Amino acid sequence: MVSLLIVSHSPQLAAGIKELADQMTGGSVQIAAVGGTADGRLGTNPDRIRSAFDAVAGPDGVLVLLDLGSAVMSAESALEGVNQPVCLSDAPLVEGAVLAAVEASLGSSLQRTAEAAERARALQKVGA
């Protein structure tokens, strides 16, 4: 089953999104959440990202959802050379994580899970 890695500059934000996605899937999907620097400040840390990735990595792959541009740079650095399939998503973080978690819980491939996350862009929160 595809796993998810949520990367945020804020550990509380990452944990909250993980909590929401876990509840939507009954905890059936492996989800890691990582945020903040090694000394507790806001930011990202490649070593912490790699450790979280390693905790959930498997043969079906890991979809990485990120909050801000510099998180992408940290994730790319952290995940360079990994042997498992990995996909960095440009989906909206909260909505994308929920849709991806539900899709992964259905046993979908990494590509289909990433596509589900990207569909979050089209979701309307209020009536048009």
Please supply descriptive tags for the structure shown above:
4 strands; alpha/beta; 128 residues; 4-stranded parallel β-sheet
- Write down the secondary-structure element order: EHEHEHEHH
Helix content: 40-55%
On the 0-100 scale, what is the average pLDDT? 95
Please state the structural category: alpha/beta
Instruction: Give the N-to-C terminal Cα separation.
Output: 36 Å
Identify the strand order in the major beta sheet.
2-1-3-4
The fraction of residues in strands falls at 15-25%
Radius of gyration: 13 Å
The rough form would be described as: globular
| Low-confidence segments | none
Largest sheet: 4 strands, parallel
Task: Give an overview in words.
The protein has five helices and four strands. By secondary structure, the chain is an alpha/beta fold. The protein has a four-stranded parallel β-sheet with strand order 2-1-3-4, sandwiched between helices. Helix 3 links the parallel strand 3 and strand 4. Helix 1 packs parallel to helix 4 and helix 4 packs antiparallel against helix 5. The protein is globular, with a radius of gyration of 13 Å.
